[in-house]
TrEMBL record:
Keywords: Lyase. This is Fatty acid oxidation complex subunit alpha. It comes from Polyrhizophydium stewartii. The keyword Transcription does not apply. PROSITE patterns: ENOYL_COA_HYDRATASE (PS00166).
Length: 258
């Protein structure tokens, strides 16, 4: 695997695992880390041998937010001219599924990065929050938008305006996370799900991800239209023929991602 300074990458079969690795700052997201993260994700997105990605941190912190020490002296003109944080959402341009496996703190930009992923699994000690208000700023990478879409106005306002954290259990109840696991089993469980996803036809998985994500952008009739077209198009793949043949012949399918 390629050597990075702020992240680690590994492969387990068709699953790529990216681990945020700035332990001395609780994985606070600085420009160098985000650059490496986006680089690694782009590389795995382009790799035909990768079918799904798991993004995780340490047991103490997924990420405790943007690096406060790095940004504290920024001024408006600098932020604006450099489009500060603009590139951080590149994660959302990755076309393969990403599971965020969140142990410990997912605060501010950490929570926002998790929400840029497709599925969030949490360890039972995880804490989610948007504490920017305590620092004299507001969420800058989806904490007022993706969070509101995920949990609704009441909960999002409560988090964004008080800066309070919620537990994994509360995050589960409010629909922010899909599942909660004991902390020490979290990454293994995320990899297990990622392997299941990666065992399916990659182009079909990519269509499914794109279709679900479009539901946030399109009207219902446009979204249903897109879904139906993708569904129709899926019959143009070898994998649809294989999947339905295998069902009829009562055997396991052998998807070739074509
Ligand atoms: N930035 C820089 N350094 C950090 C950060 C951070 N966000 N979080 C923790 N650290 C550092 C601490 O300064 C400390 O360093 P040192 O040992 O040199 O003093 C080290 O990590 C360990 O942290 P603590 O000693 O504070 O550990 P505790 O266990 O006592 O507390 C907390 C853990 C509660 C998580 C605490 O560290 C904390 O409150 N951190 C800040 C959380 C926060 O406010 N996050 C929001 C940041 S603003 C933001 O994210 C804007 C969003 C921008 C969009 C991002 C797009 C992806």
């Amino acid at each position: 695997a390629k050597e990075y300074e702020n992240i680690k990458t590994e492969r387990d079969g068709r699953v790529a695992i990216v681990t945020l690795n700035r332990p001395k700052a609780l994985n606070a997201l600085n420009a160098a880390l985000m650059k490496e993260l986006n680089e690694a994700l782009r590389e795995f997105d382009a790799d035909n041998e990768v079918g799904a990605i798991v993004l995780t941190g340490s047991e103490k912190a997924f990420a405790a937010g943007a690096d406060i020490k790095e940004m504290k002296d920024n001024n408006f003109v600098q932020n604006f001219k450099n489009n500060f944080l603009g590139g951080w959402a590149d994660i959302t341009t990755i076309r393969k599924p990403i599971i965020a496996a969140v142990n410990g703190f997912a605060l501010g930009g950490g929570c926002e990065v998790a929400m840029m992923c497709d599925i969030i699994y949490a360890g039972d000690k995880a804490k989610f929050g948007q504490p920017e208000i305590k620092l004299g700023t507001i969420p800058g990478a989806g904490g007022t938008q993706r969070l509101t879409q995920a949990v609704g106005k009441a909960k999002a306002m409560d988090l964004v305006l008080t800066g309070n954290m919620i537990s994994a259990e509360e995050a589960l109840q409010s629909g922010l996370v899909a599942k909660v696991f004991p902390a020490d089993q979290l990454v293994a469980e995320a990899v297990k799900s990622a392997k299941t996803i990666a065992s399916y036809s990659l182009p079909i998985v990519m269509m499914a991800k794109e279709a679900v994500n479009k539901s946030f952008e399109l009207t219902l009739s446009e979204g249903l239209h897109l879904e139906r077209r993708f569904f129709q198009a899926s019959f143009g793949t070898k994998d649809q023929k294989e999947g339905m043949a295998a069902f009829s012949e009562k055997r396991a399918p052998n998807f070739t991602h074509e």
